[in-house]
Amino acid sequence: MTWAELHGVLRGRGLIRADDALGAEAAVGAIAGVAYDSRAVTKGQVFVALKGLHTDGTAFARDAIDRGAAVIVSEQPAPGGVRVPWAMVEDARLALALLAAEFYRHPSRDMQVVGITGTNGKTTTAYLIASIFEAAGVRSGILGTVAYRVGPGEDDKREAARTTPEAPDVQALLREMVDHGCGACAMEVSSHALSLRRVDGMTFAAAVFTNLTRDHLDFHADMESYFQAKRRLFEMLPRTAPSLLNVDDPRGALLADAGGKPVTYAINQSADITTGPLSFSLEGLSFDVRTPRGPLSVRSALVGRPNVYNILAAVAAASALDVPFDAIERGIRDLDGVPGRFEIVSTKKDEVTVVVDYAHTDDALRNLLETARPLTGGRLITVFGCGGDRDRTKRPLMGAVAGRLSDLIVITSDNPRSEDPNRIIEEIQRGITADTRKDSDQRVLTNVDRRGAIANAIELARAGDLVLIAGKGHEKYQVIGDRTLPFDDVAVAREALERRRTGVV
User: Fold this and answer.
1) Which of 82, 207, 228, 355 would staple 78 via disulfide (CB 3.0–4.6 Å)?
2) What is the CATH architecture of 107-334?
3) For the whole model, what pTM was predicted?
4) How would you list the strands of the sheet with 408-411, edge to edge?
5) Which residues pair with 72 in a beta bridge?
6) Which of the listed CATH numbers 3.40.50.300, 3.30.300.30, 3.40.50.2300, 3.90.190.20 matches domain 343-502?
């Protein structure tokens, strides 16, 4: 692909403001790729200089040129002495997305990509949709928080650096999926990605809205800005593509006019997709689903009411895309679980139940505790913390939720990053007041060492208690200061359970 072809894409969208004296369509040979990090530039690539929160990528253009960049795209004019084509654009992030989609030959047009957005439930919904497609004989990739899966083999899994990667990475992963024979992709689409235009230029076959609760207010100015970012996914939909909306969340109905063809789902409200009576246990879920195409029967190993919503979202998407009902039922049944999502790590040999979950907002923690409460005959013990350098306003809110719904609380570190973990713990404790405590006998412990906190909780548990370890879920690391250290809640909990069983301290 030549720079003239890529330049034509930007010109066609009216993004070009000015080109340098060499001419942006100068012959520079075949373009080898599209890059946004100067440190990763290789010979023959286009380097797009992005404006960040603290630094403008244009400052690294000379470094990119030294590494072999053939063309620079920036919102700033070229400095003196630059001897490669330099295109000045209105919006470098949009330019990056459009260039990446064009360079990788628009892979989203060659498969059914289902975009899933919302605060909670994206990951599980993505796994459910992918499992349903697989049951229907359609190989499906996954892009999301836990991992990027581009094909059927273990070697086809990539570690997920973020929920939705930058546009060139998204397009490269989708192209890999197509090359591996994938006909579908279930893709989590974060509000950051939508705000930063990482998925512009894509074609979505359907889009799902799970819910909207407080999160990411360190990035978005307020809840309305957060919602408007989510809305962009639906505005990108083709007119006939289904938009699957949870109308038990009041924001769901507000998306009906955003784009696509709305299909609603709910448990409590009147909707296109809804449930019959629900059956809950630690072994899973059982219920019937009513759809415009007729009823179907759900049997799932997933646990709790939040997963009913995730299943309804997956059923709504698959049904709207004309997946056969037997494949929908089989795909839901075949999914044993999702890493770090109500993951039961104890065994029948243990006298206590231990669950690891990714819940890291006050609403997600409330859902988790309300799910767990009817499933335990003993006490509910909660281990959690809050991430550093992130939305501080949710810390006392999470403390208040734990205070209302737990019998014993162990507050610890999450990923404190550059913040003092003791200060984070203090801010969480502010939410646990006399008004928010479950009862006067409730114990609140603190342990800044997460490994020690998990061990404390499991040691203090009595037979029949349920221990919830919340916040990190599938993550295999902990970020403390400028260090990223190996840490796995599941492995640490299993070690503590083994010590409990054997009596070895």
Assistant:
1) 82
2) 3-Layer(aba) Sandwich (3.40)
3) 0.93
4) 343-344, 353-357, 466-470, 380-384, 408-411, 443-446
5) 47, 86
6) 3.90.190.20
